[in-house]
Amino acid sequence: MTQVVVLVQLMVLLGILGALQRVSRTSGRRLGSLLLLYVSLVATVTGVLASDFGTGSEPFSISVACYIVGYLSLGGAALHPSAEALMHPAGARRNGTTRLRLGLLGGSMALIPVVGGIPQLFGRSADGLLQTLGPLIMVPLVLTRIGQLIGQRTRAEQDLAYQATHDDLTGLVNRRHLFAVVAQARAARRGGPPSPDVVLYCDLDDFKPVNDRYGHEAGDEVLRRAAQRLVSTLRDQDVVARIGGDEFLAYCPGADEATAELLRGRVEEALRAPIPWRGHELRVSVSVGTACDDGRYTGPGRTLRRGGPRHVRPQTRPQANLTRTRLTGRGDLSPAGGTGRDAAVKPIVRAVVAGGLVVALGACSSGEAVAPRVTVSASGAVEVPALADTVVRPLAGNGGAPFDRERRVQAPPGWTVSVWARVPGARLLAWTPDGRLLVSRPKFGDVVRLVPGRDGEAPAQGTLVGGLNQPHGLAFAGSTLHVAESSQVDAFAYDAGAVSGRRIVAGGLPDDKSPELGGAYAHALKSVAVGRDGALYVSVGSTGNVSAEDRDARPERASILRVPPGGGPPAVFARGVRNGTGLAVDPDGGVWTAVNNRDNIGYPYDGSDRGKVLRAYVNDHPLEPLARLEQGRDLGWPFCNPDPDLRPGEEDSPLSYTGRPFVRDVQTNPGGEKLDCAALPPVEQGMGAHSAPLGLSFAVAPGLPGGYGPGALVGIHGSWNRTPPRPPEVSFFAWRDGTLGPQQTLLTGFQAPDGTRWGRPVMAVQGPDRALYVSDDLAGAVYRVAGSG
Fold first, then answer.
1. What is the pTM of this model?
2. Among residues 322, 265, 395, 407, which one has the least CA distance to residue 777?
3. Are 307 and 238 within 8 A, CB to CB?
């Protein structure tokens, strides 16, 4: 029994030795106190062994001396000046299998024969209990420790393998691993029928200004969020890699050119949304180069390089034509339907970094759905049948993704919906005096001309004008075409499908290149409308979500400017218009705007939640105004918000969007000193928060068929920051007795129940044939929606 006690003592002391050895390795330097602890431990072990080796009832005198030395050394270690340094190790060292650890494990295994056998040299009998219990205790302990060391080594090898194949910052795979994935995929298909593949090369635009203005931490956050959005946007089988800096590659097995265009649109849309970071909104965009392999080329490295940087050439202004690259069986690179190695140039979409006040974003990031509130309909809506499920039918040649499978929308009963034209990046629309449809494309710097064909035929396409700086708004005054670029409004003489005589009628408009903004401009696109008196009206968006300095800028931002008939300097017509992308003139000559209002507002009413950004409140506030403008009108931004609550301050207040008053913004105008919100005229009509209304037009008498009649048409782009997302649609507001009625859904069904979308309407205009023509920048299409009756 005595030897069992000795064994336990030695095990405890060896455990202390292991702890001292770890402290020694992490201390980073030699310490006197640590040396004294070692001396104390060695002396104690020696005393234990000497006691065990003694004969009779009296231990060797050496054991007493060892214990004395041990206790004195322990006290000296505590008093030594270096004792404090033991509490501040230099850092952890590699935790693996070392010679010392193997020696300690071997020593542990030797404890039983040492403790049980050596005393027999001194004439003492063997301890049978020790020989029985010792192995039962010691062997499992040693095996457990060996298992731990093996596990540590395995994890270390796995960590090294992960680091060798992944990017530390984003967690994406790196170029080497992507090459291996491609090689494995090709090897698995070898001998089978050819299968197409696509590579997307994604280069973040305006990433450097984020780093320069906000620092590398902000840049890292942008890269992490970009990686997350790429992975969530692409298909489950696609592999995304970061290949360096702000460049990413995505390998999309089994994808063809049509799918590549769909994926490209999704990527551009996903990365366009702002990235919240420490009270700011960081904005970048992405240039996407595509390379398509027909399945016969087998070199993974060269396949990936076809989508690389040399095929995405930065340009000051986007080119007019969109080209894609195809890999032939010989590995040659050529544009679809053409020749040349450099035809795969994708236009760079210039977005900007926008500053903004975003309070308590953590409270807004919850993915939990919030129960919808009741909406009270106002008078003025037209009585029409409920919408019916309708198949979207592509015209010949227009059936590429997302129309490579059946798509359905909800439209008025008996109406037909066809994919009339495929126009990537289609935005705002305008009909020419001779019956051609013009489509602006800010991403590509051009205006596309569509010439209607015979019944059942897709229109002929051509470029009306190119080389522009983010052209957006289009408006005719007789035979004069006005095009709103991001920094100016141009006037062209239009005749028989061609333009000439370009002149600037409103210059010096703020955009991302304005020196005072330093590249920070969130809403650079402009819209334009021509009043009945010949005056021009130009929407100038805010630089960010909340940027009150816009109200004091010259020219004033977040405003609608008016250029007098015949020309002259622009003057402010209406202010406090955060982003009035929708801009049109009603049948009586009134100017209307549909506004993208602000995000993440604080709860404005008294109580413990005052000032907090609550998902349940943000989901429905503030409404998106549809307002008739007059000289000097103020729509309140960023100090006052139009409130849809019929019972303000009540959690379950029903909502209304007609004639709604303003309430103070608790974050920017809590006391009302900045602007008297009660003095602002109520908003005529509105849409749900985060609807993102874009194009606005009027269908004049007789208007739309099916009982709708004349009214306003608004393209609802849908929300990015609402739970659940606000679905895209085309909305109708009946025009009766000189004003607009409430919002009615005319065309919807672009969004799945899980929030994913295959289309996003931008603008709807009525054509000479009374049919509606709807642009969609996500699907890259223009729909023809024809009514009955």
1. 0.59
2. 265
3. no
